[in-house]
Amino acid sequence: MPRYVAVVGPAAASLAAQPGRDDVLAAAYEVGRLLAERGAVVLCGGGTGVMGAAADGAAAAGGISIGLLPGPDRSEAHPSMSFALPTGLGELRNGLLVRAADALVAVGGSWGTLSEIALAMRTDVPVVALLGWDLPDGVRRAADPAEAVEAALG
């Protein structure tokens, strides 16, 4: 059975005005690619930004990505998603995403990302942070995508 790893982070709209956007998206792409190469299934929110970049990386490596969409319309999924599951739950889908994951890699940071990290910590899902905020004990910090993937799968 493959490991299911959630890759979470800001959507493109919330990144647009932030410096370092390209670094965050490149890191998410690499995380998705490395996870797929190791046989993991990439879970995400199904949209753009970090979610889309991780799905692009998984697709480039021939892997699988599953997007749990906040709305009811499958067509809103990023085009690289292998599977798009419309939940109609809005931000509440973050809880589904976390509960479906064996581990969570947070790339960058936004309020939605922080909610996913908090839910993961409350439910004992291991969390790895890359290019994000300094977070309390229990969240493992990774220096690069390879270290993040190793921590998530280890």
Describe this structure as you would to a colleague:
α2 (21-37) packs across α6 (145-153) and α4 (93-100) packs across α5 (111-122). With 154 residues, this protein is α/β, with parallel strands linked by helices. The radius of gyration is 13 Å and the shape is globular. It has helices at residues 12-15, 21-37, 50-60, 93-100, 111-122, 145-153, and strands spanning 4-8, 41-44, 65-69, 83-86, 103-107, 127-130, 139-141. 40% of the residues lie in helices and 19% in strands. It is built from six helices and seven strands.
Keywords:
154 residues; alpha/beta; seven-stranded parallel beta sheet
Task: Set out the fold topology.
Blueprint: E1 4-8, H1 12-15, H2 21-37, E2 41-44, H3 50-60, E3 65-69, E4 83-86, H4 93-100, E5 103-107, H5 111-122, E6 127-130, E7 139-141, H6 145-153
Parallel strand pairs: 1-2, 1-5, 2-3, 3-4, 5-6, 6-7
Sequence of secondary-structure elements: EHHEHEEHEHEEH
Given this structure, which CATH class is correct? Alpha Beta
CA-based gyration radius: 13 Å
Number of domains: 1
Biggest β-sheet: strands ordered side by side in the sheet: 4-3-2-1-5-6-7
- Beta-strand percentage range: 15-25%
Helix content: 25-40%
Number of strands: 7
Number of helices: 6
Oligomer: single chain
Write down the CATH topology.
Rossmann fold
What is the CATH architecture assignment?
Answer: 3-Layer(aba) Sandwich
Average the pLDDT over all residues and give the rounded result: 92
Give a quick rundown of the structure.
The protein is an alpha/beta fold and 154 residues long. It has 6 helices and 7 strands.
